[in-house]
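During the reporting period the student researcher (J.K.) took over the structure-prediction task from the postdoctoral fellow and processed the backlog of single-chain submissions. One of the processed entries is reproduced below for the supervisory committee.
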Amino acid sequence: MDSKSSANSELIIDVIRAFDSILEGKSASEFIYNPDRKDSAEFNFLLYGMLRWHHQLLYLIHLLAKKNINSWQKNLILLLELGLFQILFSNKPEYAVVNNANNATFALGIGKAKSIINACLRSFLRERDKFLFQLHSKDEANYAHPEWMIKYLKKQFPNDWQNILTKNNVQAPMMARINSRLITNQEYKKVLSSKNISYIESKEMPFGVIIDPPKPYRNLPGYETGMVSIQDFSSQLVVQELNPKNGETILDICSAPGGKLGYIYELAPQAKITSVEKDEVRYEYMLKNMERLGVVGTFLNMDGEKIENSFPSESFNKVLIDAPCSSLGVIRRHPEIKHHRRRDDFNSYQVTQIALIKSAWPLLKKGGELLYSVCTYSDEETNEVISKIKEEFENIKIISNRLILPGENGMNGLYYAKLKKL
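J.K. obtained the following structure tokens:
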């Protein structure tokens, strides 16, 4: 095997092993953000592609095999998935995909299955249209989502479920926020142009810009010095809805990785900002991000569900709770969510979300506002949470709420509700 074939086999093996580990529950970030990989762009493309289209690819294998594949070795199935993905979604020549898959069988310890690899991939190439047509008979395969999730969306969004599923399989745009404390929009766009970085201006977001085509975020001019941050426009909307003002006391709960916190500071650098983050690893990452952005505030590594007695009552004018959630709204950016999430997760997250609001409510001043946000759209984590909080406290008025479905104006899916303390 020549050096090029060997490198191709190593890449295939790395992708398959990472994919298998993620299916078993590991975070995709453990494999995606590896600065030492020289082939990181191709690795990420293949890994995200398998995560995004797994349900469809697996169904195609069942069709191609014409028999039960439960007895097949796992690596054989995963290698076929990767080969089919490349045929369907990459620019690699089809003969090269088949040859690379065959070469990888020996490195994966499935050399005897080479004939199966050949037969399945070549059969698909001969009758591609016939096999793709059969996908329409099964929603799980056609939309590449788990069956339980499709059923849930059909019930909750009878008019939008197909659009949600379709948008979930489209790569999200690279949205950024320009730091208005350090540079104006026009000045930064001139910097992008001088570096031959293409962008799309945003009509809705005052400090937003879309980098198109996407670039490694660390390669954006001024990133390391806080001039720009990667942040979806939906998250920017949340901070705009909070409407932070100089002189206010503001509490940000579940702050990491700090995108919203950074934007709060950019809009109101004279506000007194307190940040609370429970997870120690995420907290440390947030501190580095705040240092990059030059954010001044109080940053606490503590549990947001237990902060009621950590501050005097009615200490804050505004509270932002960007609560842990099922993250259905960011499947486009994190397709592993399709494989990690379970139906009963919605109720589990709801318990945490309500606990966070109940803990923070006594700390809000009379007339103050609490903004609750989640990057999801399950009814349990949106409408139900607010309904139950209204039952818990009588001194609440809903000022505004909004549900954004994935792909709306290019944004992530998200829900927020602004509550006023009477």
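The committee noted the following: Residues 319 and 370 are 5 Å apart (CA to CA).
J.K. will present the remaining backlog at the next meeting.
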